[in-house]
What does this fold into?
Amino acid sequence: MSDVVTKPGSETSAGRRLARRVLRTLVLWGAVCAVIALLASCVVFVDETQYVIVERLGTIAAVYDRDEDRGLQFKLPWPISTVRTFDRRLQLLDPPGRELFTGDKKNITVDSYVCWRIAPTSSESSTELSDRPVVRFFRSLGNVSTAEDRLMSRLQSLLSAEFGRVELTDLLSVENSEAGPQGDSSMESLTERLKSRFEKSEEGATSPREALGIEIVDVRIKRINLPEANRFAVFERMKSERQKIADRYRSAGLAQNTVIRSQADRQREEILSKADADAQRIRGTGEAEALRILNQAHAQDPEFYRFERTLQSYHKILNERTTLVLSASSALLKLLTEGIPDVQKPQPETKQADPSTETPVAEKNVSQSSATPDTLSEKSRAEGTK
It folds into this structure.
């Protein structure tokens, strides 16, 4: 019975001893962790991309902003000493485009950027901590976002002032459209003025390095555009101007076409009229030559020519259905009944007549022969009708 009473007490004391042992272990490990954290807070690692400021109870105790300060550095533990880090690399401020007015009251959208950084500490600078650029930056601006807001407001004011002094035509005029602004162009000179003014403080007495602890590396204008509201109207005006130019070229081409066509038609008419005149002349010459040859042929044997014309009249009058009623004295009937009359050959002339005083016999025979067949044909038709 006594064993049953004492056994629970021994288990309770053992549990308490185990709890105390675990508590001591936890306290020990907590103390070790606190010591390690305390020792860790005494170490500062200065990266090559950072500036480091060490504050001791609100006062700047150390500044690590040189190349030789990189690596491990030591300070008092937190919360006695605190560390502030700043990026020493280049920073790019690229604000959205803003609508501005030029000197000739034309509104445009300007897109620009600023490349800046916290100014590095030179070897000739003062050893006073308050004169370090990173300290000025920390006291005047505090962080990067505040610095960008300050730079953006400064950039916008300078852009408004500089663009208000130039005209839009000067900004857009370049010698080579493929190469862009070069040399002493208006855009390049405006950028240089903007950068030189940006490197001065707002009061104009000191530079941003001395006033804010920052260094302006570059200021550039990326793009100049028309406002979105005016872009459509400008495009329409450009289209109308190009349409006017096209209409002018087209009307000039039509006028030139009319001139060329009229000249071609005139030349065509001249060529055709000349060709017709040549054709009439050649045709008249040919007909005269043919008539002369025919007259010469008829003059050689008028009786044969008369006989030939008679046969041609028969050929025209007679066919399978023709019925002729002729008189006994008809020449056509005599030719059919008596046959071909004896034709005497012309005798050669013994004397040559004077052509200036006498009429050529050939011409008389030709005139007679030319009249005889027609007369014979008419008589034959008359007698056939009878």
User: Anything to note?
Assistant: The beta strands are 43-46, 50-56, 59-64, 71-74, 81-87, 91-93, 98-101, 107-118, 214-225. The longest strand covers residues 107-118. The two ends are 193 Å apart (CA to CA). Residues 301-344+357-386 form one domain.
